[in-house]
Write a structure and sequence with these properties.
This protein is of the alpha+beta class. It is 33% helix and 39% strand. The protein contains 4 helices and 9 strands. The radius of gyration is 31 Å and the shape is elongated. About 7% of the residues have low confidence.
Length: 230
């Protein structure tokens, strides 16, 4: 009885396996890549300022005065209040072991988004005049980044389809519908490749000078696609 049951079970397993193989759709899996290079039209500038003194209130007031001048300057320059914000504020007591004196250090950083790169030189010089004494970083970006990312994804799909067609063309087969699409793209922080230059007028209104290399941003996407073969 057990032998008979085992034979029947084995028979059905073979039939099911054969049926699955018969119904299996011929397919091909490839990876496509999409790249889009763009010239950034915005800059995110991180600036800071520091003051030191013997009294904590005095040091804080000095920083507050700088903040007030910075905000007034940005407003006067047409920078929207939504395009700048305080990033970090610190106030701490330090000690100079050589002079055997303690003092207070106050610092603050601001993040400013410049949506008009032609104002870069003017804004940076103005910030220096009102008390900002350090530039902590400049990051370039595009106001149309989502549109460019969409273009890169479409290019990746087209690249995958072209690869599949190249592979199967010599086999006398055709690429059918997509069975599975997997997005392999990873999040990233765009970094400019310094190739271009922004021309800005000199502070005295004289000849033009090159003051900012905006470069290019490169958006990369990757996608895996499984196509049916006809």
């Amino acid at each position: 009885m057990k032998k008979t049951f085992l034979i029947i079970a084995t028979f059905f397993a073979i039939v099911v396996q054969a049926q699955e193989q018969k119904n299996q759709v011929p397919q091909i899996s490839v990876t496509g890549e999409g790249k889009v290079k763009i010239v950034p039209d915005q800059a995110v500038v991180t600036v800071g300022f520091q003051n030191s003194g013997k009294d904590a209130n005095e040091v804080k007031n000095l920083n507050d005065e700088v903040v007030d001048r910075v905000i007034k300057f940005l407003k006067k320059s047409g920078i929207s209040a939504t395009d700048y914000k305080t990033n970090n504020v610190s106030l701490y007591k330090g000690y100079d072991y050589e002079k055997k004196k303690s003092n207070f250090q106050a610092s603050q950083t601001l993040i400013i988004t410049l949506k008009d790169l032609s104002k870069y030189d003017y804004i940076m010089m103005g910030l220096n005049d009102v008390g900002v004494n350090s530039i902590n970083g400049v990051e370039f970006k595009s106001s149309k980044i989502e549109d460019y990312e969409s273009d890169a994804r479409k290019k990746a799909i087209l690249n995958a389809k072209q690869k599949a067609q190249d592979y199967v063309s010599v086999l006398g087969q055709k690429v059918g519908k997509a069975l599975l699409i997997t997005d392999n793209s990873q999040s990233y922080i765009p970094q400019p490749m310094y190739k271009g230059n922004m021309m800005a007028m000199a502070a005295d209104g004289g000849t033009q000078r090159e003051t900012l290399a905006v470069g290019e941003l490169e958006i990369n996407t990757s996608v895996s696609v499984t196509f049916a073969l006809e």
